[in-house]
Write a structure and sequence with these properties.
The chain is α+β, with helices and mostly antiparallel strands. The protein folds into two domains: 18-57 and 81-253 and 388-407, no CATH class; 258-363 and 428-533, Serum Albumin, Chain A, Domain 1 (Orthogonal Bundle), CATH 1.10.246. The chain has 19 helices and 20 strands.
């Protein structure tokens, strides 16, 4: 079993995230004696301020926590649910097709993506509440203080935020982000320039309404969002805008705690979130790839890309066929992760078979992540998102609500179909790796449909290739979430030609760091090293 050979000076605590302001918030909480959960929550609240199209209190998330002091190891599920007013066939007549990246559905008028009908029941604050109640050390208001300061004092648009503000997803069947920024008077005032174009790198953003909302949550707790004064504002806006979300939906939402989904890979234990989160995809790919001597193939060689891409396609096909909300569709996890099935898949790959996953690939990037290890060894990984931002900012609140109805299949009778109270499959997969009972790695990624393939490659880069975490998240990636193999612009053209000679269509990205954005920490012998994907604006910090 390979492991990195290069070592950094010892650190006792570390946090990594894609936003510098969020990393600073988490670091300050760790330095003040907070737990890893405290630090991740402070980081997450700040992310919602300074990366407002990626995440926020109107969104959803998944968090994995391991606490060596108590031996507890859980996944907290704050994935959103369909409002109670939803029915399976309500949008069947306006269905136009699947988004070309396989991440959402196109409806006439974009009703499931932009506006009040696109909003699902936000779950992330109930997740945060449960995590703090069980694992927090610092007072709840302390965790919101950095976010309040950022909202009230202002922040400056960074390169990745500017990229999201100007994003046009028409090629995938979704709307321009400028339409979402302009959907409400509050959005226009916050995020557009005087000429109506999105703010650019270096432009300031101040959000006193969000600061006031966060002060209410700091003072009155999460109930203020679900049953109190903030809930009243949300419900009033939903009624005014023809939304589906009701007071009963908000009041009835609860986060869930699950044991992680676990497998072994080359003697190490891999823990991922169970369905409806995306860990099953990572677990299935690893089970298949364990049957191959990947190091013998050569990193990112044509043979390596073929084998790993086939595992990606098989797991993606199985996800589409079998995985939804377990309350509605029971997933065949034992079969998908069995030795027999993995052996059969590996046999077919060796024989040269090509799995079929017919979609046109692409990325959906409306997500962010944070990982942390504290001085006591607690390990936490969180991924949270707005899904597809709805553009809806309830007047005077300063936060945008999710547009996660875009994730539900408007065709009845499918694993991801619409149903009241149903949670949709999410690719979010905050992952932990253990040697025996000792955690040695945590990794998560934003990136929609590409989260699983990015986390897989970060894991392989560390566990099979002995890379450091920064090397692992920076190495060129590829993706096979469709029948096309997408490759980073840093994979040589000679490799591309060799893969094409095997009968594959290969599409070269113009980007140097495409296909999600993994961030993580390794902890070999308790020496912590963080890695932040270079395409985002964050970093790792520790002491």
């Amino acid at each position: 079993m390979a492991r990195p050979t290069r070592r950094l000076p010892a650190a006792t605590a570390m946090i990594v995230a894609p936003q510098p302001e969020a990393v600073e918030a988490g670091y300050a909480v760790l330095a003040a004696g907070g737990s890893a959960v405290d630090a991740v929550l402070a980081c997450a609240f700040t992310q919602g301020v300074v990366d407002p199209m990626m995440c926020g209190i109107g969104g959803l998330g998944s968090m994995q926590i391991f606490d060596p002091a108590t031996g507890r190891h859980i996944v907290l599920d704050g994935l959103s649910t369909c409002p109670g007013a939803c029915t399976p066939a309500m949008w069947e007549s306006v269905f136009e097709g699947e988004c070309t990246d396989g991440y959402g559905y196109m409806l006439t008028g974009g009703v499931n993506e932009l506006g009040h009908a696109a909003v699902t029941t936000p779950g992330v604050l109930r997740l945060f509440e449960a995590a703090h109640t069980q694992f927090g050390r610092l007072p709840w208001p302390d965790l919101l203080a950095p976010a309040i300061d950022a909202a009230a004092g202002g922040w400056v648009v960074r390169p990745h935020v500017a990229g999201m503000f100007s994003l046009n997803e028409a090629a995938y069947g979704r709307l321009r982000y400028s339409a979402k920024l302009a959907a409400t008077p509050d959005g226009r005032a916050l995020y557009l320039r005087a000429d109506g174009t999105p703010k650019r790198v270096g432009d300031p953003v101040r959000n006193p309404d969000l600061a006031a909302t966060l002060r209410t949550i700091a003072r009155d707790g999460v109930d203020s969002f679900y049953t109190g004064s903030i809930a009243a504002r949300i419900v009033a806006d939903m009624k005014a805008g023809g939304g589906l979300l009701s007071a009963a939906d908000l009041a009835g939402f609860r986060s869930r705690a699950h044991p992680p989904l676990e497998i072994t890979y080359r003697g190490r234990r891999i823990a991922t979130p169970p369905p409806p989160a995306g860990g099953i995809v990572i677990a299935e790919m690893l089970r298949i790839l364990e049957r191959f001597d990947l190091a013998l193939l050569g990193h990112n060689s044509p043979a390596y890309i073929r084998v790993v891409a086939e595992a990606m396609k098989i797991a993606g096909r199985d996800k589409e066929t079998h995985i939804g909300d377990p309350d509605f569709v029971v997933p065949p996890l034992a079969f998908l992760l069995s030795d027999g099935y993995a052996d059969d898949c590996a046999k077919r790959i060796r024989a040269g078979d090509k799995a079929s996953l017919p979609r046109t690939g692409g990325d959906s990037r409306h997500t962010t992540t944070v990982s942390c290890i504290d001085a006591g060894g607690m390990v936490v990984s969180l991924t949270h998102t707005l899904g597809v931002p709805s553009g809806v900012i309830p007047p005077g609140t300063g936060f945008m609500l999710n547009g996660a109805m875009n994730w539900y299949d408007p065709r009845p009778g499918r694993p991801g179909s619409i149903a009241a109270g149903k949670r949709r499959f999410s690719s979010m997969s905050p992952t932990l790796v253990f040697e025996g009972e000792t955690p040695v790695m945590t990794v998560g990624a934003p990136g929609g449909a590409w989260i699983g393939v990015a986390i897989l490659q970060a894991l392989l880069n560390v566990l099979d290739w002995g890379m450091t975490m920064q090397e692992a998240v920076s190495a060129p990636r590829f993706s096979a979430t469709t029948d096309v193999i997408d490759i980073s612009n840093r994979i040589p053209r000679r490799v591309q030609r060799a893969v094409e000679a095997m009968g594959y269509e290969v599409r070269r990205s113009a980007l140097s760091y495409p296909f999600a954005a993994p961030h993580g920490i390794t902890a070999w012998d308790r020496r912590l090293e963080g890695g932040a994907d270079p395409q985002r604006d964050g970093y790792a910090d520790g002491f």
